[in-house]
Fold this protein.
Amino acid sequence: MYKVLITDHISSKGLDILNADPDIEIDYQPEIRWEELLEIVKDYDAIITRSRTPVNEELLERAEKLKVVGRAGVGVDNVDLEACSRRGILVVNTPGANTVGAAELTIAHMYAVLRKLHLAHQSMLQGEWNRKKFMGEELDGKVVGIIGLGNVGSQVAIRCKAAGSKVIAYDPYIPREKGERLGVELVDTLEELIKRSDIITLHCPLTEETKGMIGAKEFEMMKDGVYFINCARGGIVDEDAMYEYMKKGKFAGIGLDVFSKEPPDDRIRRIFEFPNISLSPHIGANTYESQDKVAVKIAQQVIAALKGQFVEAAVNAPFTITEGFENIKAFLQLAEKLGSFLTQYAGGNFKEINIEVRGSIAEYIKPISAYVLKGFLEPILDRPVNIINAPFLAKERGINIVEATREEALVFKDFIKITAVENGKEHIVGGTAFYGQIPKIMLVDGYWIDIDPEGVILVFENKDVPGVIAQLGQILAKHNINIAGFRLGRLEKGKIALGALQLDDRVNDKILKEIMDIPQIIKAKEIIL
């Protein structure tokens, strides 16, 4: 019998699932005081909470039997993941449970600004009857541009198509087949989407790549009279730039549910002064149905975790590296770095990833593959990715994973090689851990090289002629960026070479453009490991 303590309010639908399982005994105390919780937590195998209860060191030290923490929602800010992992406690959450709610709120904001419903409502409350003032536009026939065609973006696409819209989408990490299934045209660049769209709606995660993705440059490219909706994450949009373009009259309407700072401060609240803006306080998940789904999903996840079954929404690993994997710790770290390097260097839009493990580490193909996928997916997702859910997430994105082993490596005693395939084109990364302790990236797209997988790395392809490194050094020196290390690989003298500069500081878009302006440079990417 497993004892489950519930310390926050959840829907009765979740309680029914827990009560129906003969192996589960629940204690529902959604208003329990912290002091009382500390006294009784030692008796429970699992805790289900929302944001009210901090699952911290103080609590975990007293939770002698605790095996699972269930967070009814997506965010896990109130859970000390490192402390849970250290104790072998599995943390699960409920991503995707609010998909429909978020999609419908997006459509609500869309219709509100198209038909000026929020303004008409306010006018009626003031005793007015001014029909001519509220001439609107129809969703039918509009070009709707969706940035991010994941779970929520796909649901928005379905609803916009049903309303008669032409839907286009930009998402470099989604296979074209998914767009075809939805009847959505996937465009190659963000710029193309922005220039073609009558309505632009955001549905991408907030990552290092998407932070500030929509700013002055993007607003300038938009059509005059564009409608702009953001029910994703506030940090994706430069709100200062949005304010300036609102003053210029760029937008026919804006709908916002999210902000870079919540609640919004005075700087953000400047945009509220414009009449053509529809606002809500981050309520994408605030539907009874979404809360039912959250409760059902967390109940199912906790039961599965307690019984040792597969859990698709695990937030951390159910074990630490020291428990059985210490002898290949460096190779697990390498595997994760190789996956991250591959995404950042070649992109994440692959249909197939082949993971080949050679030598004495071949018997650990499963954990190595999981760490490769964790590294590969983490830079492009805003939800927690770990070795438990990474294979599931890869499958969800339509990626075929092929695993292979060889008893002996060709060059090194032990070697990990990853080959990513898309439309017949391959990208390859590989590496080893010297003395079983020092991870090294040794192979990139056919070039043998020696890269320390840590920190800031500027990877570039160039024509193999004198003077390229000198020009690069001058640009970096001008911007006060120090070079910590340099590695070079080439297939043939005088042809194409691959270089890797380890830097003490990051380079920005301006510096990258200067580097790309060097005539001999073919490609340059900043990679953070």
